[in-house]
Amino acid sequence: MESKYNQKAWEQETKLGRRLYIHNYGMTGTEFAGWELVKISVASHSPDGSEKVFMWKCKTGKGEELVQVRVIESSYWRNALQYHHDQLMHSMRPDIPRGKGKTAGIGDIQHVGQTPTKETTAMIFTRGNLQISVSSVGLNPVDVTPLAKALDNRLTKPPTKTEEKKMMASRQKPLKVKAKKKEMTALIDTLPEPTPKSGWTRVLAAEGEIRKEGDTLYIVDEQGGDREVEIINYKLE
Questions:
Q1: Starting from the edge strand earliest in sequence, which strands make up the sheet with 216-220, in order?
Q2: Residue range 42-67, pLDDT digits in tens
Q3: In 3D, which of 37, 70, 35 has the Cα closest to residue 52?
Q4: H or E segment at 10?
Q5: Are 125 and 111 in contact (CB under 8 A)?
Q6: Residue 72 · residue 49 · CB < 8 Å
Q7: What would the DSSP string read from start to end of 179-206?
Q8: pTM above threshold 0.90
Q9: How far is CA 158 from each of CA 115, 134, 166, rounded to the nearest angstrom?
């Protein structure tokens, strides 16, 4: 099992995730068409990050189709991979496979749990500094692939025109910095304190790696030079 879950290999596979940082991620209830967000809870909070759990119920079912989304927010993409590795190692099911076909492109790294009929009822993946699990937990199992894909798109794709028009998402003026070669260069001196109702922020660099230390967000660039960073703020209500 140790060789199968090769974290060093995952680091080489992670490309977009190195440049992406999500701060205080939250869900509004509009992310999954046909589903209702029925419960939100914060499972834990530590200096490195937090764990939030979102419970969803299918609107057209009889209450037996439930999906749980668990999001661990860490300070660094490598830490997200460590959380991912730990979850796999502590699973009672050995050798959980990587995603294939429709699930292969979800996240930076992904592993899936399937029924004998190849229906994906559980998926765990990393994207940037987040480690995410999407699991069917109701009496009637459902395929979670469309939900995991929608969530990943939410983290990586630009906001919709409707979101921007309704001021649910706002782009800041691109942040231009001169990154020091192989050193940490501050992007945001003090990140806002996370609260249950405050919005979330997506930070995406064209190059380099993004990480948080304390309340400060940094970029680390192997080559150094002028860099442009995109910052988008999303409202939760």
A1: 184-188, 216-220, 209-213
A2: 877 666 778 999 999 999 988 899 99
A3: 70
A4: helix 7-13
A5: yes
A6: yes
A7: EPBTSEEEEESSPPPP-TTS-EEEEEES
A8: yes
A9: 33, 22, 15
